[in-house]
From TrEMBL:
Record domain G-protein coupled receptors family 1 profile: where: 41-164
Record field: transmembrane: 25-48, 60-82, 102-127, 139-158
Any one of the GO CC terms: plasma membrane
Protein name: Olfactory receptor 2B6
A Pfam family annotated for this UniProt entry: 7tm_1
Gene Ontology molecular-function annotations: G protein-coupled receptor activity; olfactory receptor activity
Entries under InterPro entries matching the protein: GPCR_Rhodpsn, GPCR_Rhodpsn_7TM, Olfact_rcpt
Membrane topology, record value: Multi-pass membrane protein
Location, primary (coarse class): membrane
Record organism: Sciurus carolinensis
Annotated localization: Cell membrane
Superkingdom: Eukaryota
C-alpha cells in the first residue's frame, strides 16, 4: 500500500518579517516609491526609443524590449508584496502563487536570453561593423526577440511545472 499525499493547499501563509515586524512599514514605503519610479523610467525609455527615428536601431529595439520585460517582471512581484506588507492578512492563494511563479519564471528566463541576444548584438557591432546592417536587420531582430520570449515561456513551463 503506497502512501500518497492527496492534500491540496488552499492558500499559503507568508511569514516574511514575522520576527521583525518593524521592517514592514519602511519596506512598504520604499517599494511604494520605487515601483512607480521604475515604471515611469521604463515607459520613458520605451517612448523615447520609439518616438525618435534616430533611435530605430537594433540596440534600442532590444533595449525597448528589455524595458517592457522589466515592467512585466516588477509588476509580477511588487503589487503582491505591497498588498502583503500593507495588510494584516499575510496569505496568498494557491492559484495566485502558481500564477506569480509562472510569470516570475517567464520574465526571468526571457530576461536572461534577451541579455544574451543584446551581447551578441554588441559583438556583431564591434567585431563585424561592415556586416552589421546585413546581420542585424529588422526582420532578424523581431525573429530573435520572438524566439527569446518563446524560450522564456518554454523555460517557465518546464521549470515551474517541476516546482509544483
Amino acid at each position: 500500500m503506497a502512501l500518497i499525499n492527496e492534500s491540496h493547499p488552499e492558500e499559503f501563509i507568508l511569514l516574511g518579517f514575522a520576527d521583525r515586524p518593524w521592517l514592514e512599514l519602511p519596506i512598504f514605503i520604499v517599494l511604494l516609491i520605487t515601483y512607480p519610479v521604475a515604471m515611469m523610467g521604463n515607459i520613458a525609455i520605451i517612448l523615447v526609443s520609439r518616438l525618435d527615428p534616430r533611435l530605430h536601431s537594433p540596440m534600442y529595439f532590444f533595449l525597448t524590449n528589455l524595458s517592457f520585460l522589466d515592467m512585466c517582471y516588477t509588476t509580477s512581484i511588487v503589487p503582491q508584496m505591497l498588498f502583503n506588507l500593507g495588510s494584516s492578512k499575510k496569505t496568498i492563494s494557491y492559484m495566485g502563487c502558481v500564477v506569480q511563479l509562472y510569470f516570475f519564471h517567464i520574465m526571468g528566463g526571457t530576461e536572461c536570453l534577451l541579455l544574451a541576444i543584446m551581447s551578441f548584438d554588441c559583438y556583431v557591432a564591434i567585431c563585424r561593423p561592415l556586416h552589421y546592417t546585413l546581420i542585424m536587420n529588422q526582420h532578424i531582430c523581431i525573429l530573435l526577440v520572438s524566439t527569446v520570449w518563446l524560450g522564456g515561456i518554454t523555460y517557465a513551463v518546464s521549470e515551474a511545472t517541476v516546482t509544483l
